Amino acid sequence: MDNESFMRAAIELADDGLRGGRGGPFGCVVVRRGEIIGQGSNRVTSTNDPTAHAEVTAIRDACARLQTFQLADCELYTSCEPCPMCLAAIYWARIPAVYYGNTRADAAAIGFDDDFIYRQVALPPEKRAIRMTPLLRDAALHSFQAWADLENKIRY
Amino acid sequence: MDNESFMRAAIELADDGLRGGRGGPFGCVVVRRGEIIGQGSNRVTSTNDPTAHAEVTAIRDACARLQTFQLADCELYTSCEPCPMCLAAIYWARIPAVYYGNTRADAAAIGFDDDFIYRQVALPPEKRAIRMTPLLRDAALHSFQAWADLENKIRY
Hints:
The structure is a homodimer. By secondary structure, the first copy, chain A, is an alpha+beta fold. Chain A has 7 helices and 5 strands. In chain A, α3 (54-66) runs parallel beside α4. The two termini of chain A are 31 Å apart.
């Protein structure tokens, strides 16, 4: 399969999810060495999980199948430019390459908040629409110090 | 319980998760009407799930318990300033208020990529360390149009 075939598979997942009433019109596949090893469509409303976007679902699927928490040898194909949640998930999973169909502007045009959230994430915490309040940093730093001191920890 | 008690509960989850070897030193609780209705600690390395940050885990826990995909009447307490993935998840869940302990700079100081990912998310797609390539937008737009045309859809 070539790049366009993988993108068509992601789009087909978006269409299937929409027809099945599982959530928004988004689909995604994770590919390793020319093979789809993870896939997903948006399942937010059908599973009561606001984090169940297509990319998060596909990454979790790929990681479960490969028994790993990093996908550095994979590529991700998504029917729409990832929202900030999914983009950051892609960074945490160490996926080095992403192909996307629709843009965040296309998503905004049909009522999704991706572009708004991109602009919010770029603001300092005190400027956001969400009220963000620092609290007990000194106490919280103790668990960070415990991590720093830990030998043989598994980094990610 | 007051604000500080909820933050101490989040920090205790961070410490427990660290001691139990479940993942990084991060804990989170979701509170509604003065009661903890969701909680989590980082479980990335123990469950092979790069999206299993404390906040994502706590949001999923709260939504499963309340059988909803939106938490507009809740507050979130996290032992560290949310990374972009978790912050965007908080927006998608419609949580209006967040309390946090450590900062993203504190997280960077013990080896976590939060600050790097914040700076990456703010860049245009073509400027990022991850290679991002548009592909087949015209084909992908068809599923967006199908969503736009759908009556009685569940928005989120």
